[in-house]
């Protein structure tokens, strides 16, 4: 959807794609790199194209426990073969001729001359010979050298985030170390006179600062160096000072709060006061309508809205887009997957909405997304109970049970 009009303020709102493009435009690729041990590389960003240095499998081998044989143009059921050798994995056997078989195990190299393996379940055997109970064809139960990977094939592109699958493939190639990008340094500070740090006594109209611990955890979990930038009061000069100090040792500085339009919202003014530049985004997104993107010194800057759920959604959409750009990766928006919702949900069209939802399945029937809560930007309980976020398209009016949303799970298979 292109720009829409905010029903309350009559302001023009930009699309999520436009907001991501604006965020990405503020991020320059960080090229610092280092070499790490393969076993410590999961979660890191690959710095260079990885080209296969050897074939996988490295030699032609048996895919089953059974008997290697020479099937040539085909061998019929009932054929008797003499057992002349035994080839366990890790050893090599002798050459086979027609009429001969070698006892062989999964992963053992195929003897020269052999071209098929019959599974042990498909033979009748005595002490010295086997009789086939199945017809055999050349190639049966054989893994050929290089059938998975050929030498010199480009296997991994720079910019990908390595995970245990890549670690396995690189290990199979014999790589002991990997060239990766240095971890991004991402600083987070919060703004707001009403905020109090956990551990301190809560007095008067104060609330605990929950965004900064959440964001530092998200950043740490994503494998970056999370820098705790503390808290700044609602004062232009204090925020400006904090921005300047953190920008000198970070690739990205994030603030939460003060991103909106009230006179107590100082983040943009502070950014400019500190010598940076930026702009307020008003996005057709709920929660997380306001955000600020910009630059200060060598660092990119992202000002997240203060409402806790808004701050999370803004990080997931704009923050991750910026991180991808800092890492030199192509932007791939989260696509989620379509699921029917379990119950109706009342809403006003206009902004794409993200609401906490959990997965439910009715006695092994279809999986549905059950929206939890009413979509408040400040409510942490539904968020904590959810399995992910349900994305409701901007143009949707009230949803009925069974209507489709897109579901974005909080955790993937490799995040535990
Ligand atoms: N007149 C308008 N008012 C507001 C608009 C608007 O368009 N026009 N937008 C609303 C939306 S949407 C959001 S989101 C918020 C964004 O506000 P700010 O980024 O300026 O955030 P604050 O005003 O500082 O705080 C909002 C809310 O969040 C609490 N908060 C802030 N920081 C934290 C933290 N670190 N941990 C926990 N809670 C935090 C804060 O106490 C407020 O309750 O503006 C709306 N207003
Ligand atoms: O968009 Mo605000 O982010 O609704 O809470």
From TrEMBL:
Its EC number is 2.10.1.1. It catalyses: adenylyl-molybdopterin + molybdate = Mo-molybdopterin + AMP + H(+). The keyword Ligase does not apply. Its cofactor is Mg(2+). Residues 187-325 form the MoaB/Mog domain. Keywords: Magnesium, Metal-binding, Molybdenum, Molybdenum cofactor biosynthesis, Transferase. It is an enzyme of class 2 (transferase). Pathway: Cofactor biosynthesis; molybdopterin biosynthesis. It comes from the Bacteria. Gene3D superfamilies: MoaB/Mog-like domain, MoeA, C-terminal, domain IV, Molybdopterin biosynthesis moea protein, domain 2, Molybdopterin biosynthesis moea protein, domain 3. Transmembrane segments: none annotated. Catalyzes the insertion of molybdate into adenylated molybdopterin with the concomitant release of AMP. Belongs to the MoeA family. This is Molybdopterin molybdenumtransferase. It comes from Bosea massiliensis.
